[in-house]
Amino acid sequence: MNLVLCLTEQCNLRCSYCYYKETQACRHAVMDNATLEQAIRTGLERTISFKQKHLIVSFFGGEPLLRKDAIMGGVGFAKALVAEAMVQHRIGTDFRLSFVINTNGTLFDDAFLDFCEREKFTIFLSLDGPGYHHDIARRTTDGRGSFKDIEWNIPRLVKLGATALSTITRAHVGTLAESIRWLHEQGFKSIATAVDFDGKWTGDEFENLADQYREMAQYWLECRKAGEKFFLGTIQDKIKLLVLEKRFRQYSCHVYDGTIGVATNGNIFPCSRFITSKESAPYLQGNVFTGFDEGACKKLRDFLESDKQECEGCAIRYRCCMHECACTSFYTTGTLEGVSAEVCTHERMLAEICDKLISN
After folding, report:
1. What are the pLDDT digits (tens) for 149-172?
2. CATH code, residues 2-306
3. pTM of the model
4. Alpha-carbon 339 to chain mean position
5. Closest Cα partner for 165 from 142, 140, 137, 145?
6. What is the distance between the alpha carbons of residues 256 and 322, in angstroms, rounded to a whole number?
7. Is the Cβ–Cβ distance between 76 and 119 less than 8 Å?
8. Residue ranges of the domains in the chain?
9. At a CB cut-off of 8 Å and minimum separation 6, what does 147 contact?
10. pLDDT for 217-232, tens place per residue?
């Protein structure tokens, strides 16, 4: 079970693609200690009830490093809670507890990096590439690029095995492949990209993106042939689903029994993209103090167990994040059932490139 905790809605950056960019200055909510502890209890109980043996506590935001105190306190509380459950024989000694942080990387210091190393954190770092590429979108509140605030930490983050997360906007397309190569040359062994689907992508921009994907795919293949352990999720995930004949939902999207997203006020959601402290929010599943609304959870089960009518007959539907991923459906259409023509175009393009690569 992946318990995603929104420690704060605040952020020290104003990234151009952020879905909160217009309202970020008004987002002041933070998660108090009582809610944090109850969320961890809820996550552990849900994990036990599903007879799972691994709880991941993911610290999320906003920018979670604004709440280093809460992260350190949450780690200590989770470890104590799991130890108590073992003593009570509610879980076995093979139960695993691990920690994740999703961060823009600008607020690290040596002491907190030491803490992450001691606790064996998995770090997901928002880093688009070298400064000229990264600073296109990821800017501070006063409008300057944020790359310089991350650069000095890159060697240490690489040593800690951080995954680099690169966002692709329409302004980034021209230097995407060279930026992925640069990230790998810095030592990152795991890289993932995500497209900012803003509803404004043109045919020419998609063609340019396809050229960049082809270059990325060829570079990934060359690295793999050379024996390097290099995970490039953009390419590798599409190939893996084809080779293993698995559905994306089985491999990645577990919005009912694999993920709990908790807002600053304790409200429960299916995944990170849904999280908000607003009242009467879509797909609200309950609150950590009152429990799960199983009727609301049934909507998630129905999503996982059904196919979208609009996608019927599509050859790639089970490898397509538009058809298979709840988050992508929600943030591009506002519903689980919706289909974005923009995402559909992207997925067909990417699948064709990956299929051609593997066939060769």
Report:
1. 999 999 999 999 999 999 999 999
2. 3.20.20.70
3. 0.95
4. 20
5. 137
6. 17
7. no
8. 2-306
9. 130, 131, 134, 135, 138
10. 999 999 999 999 899 9
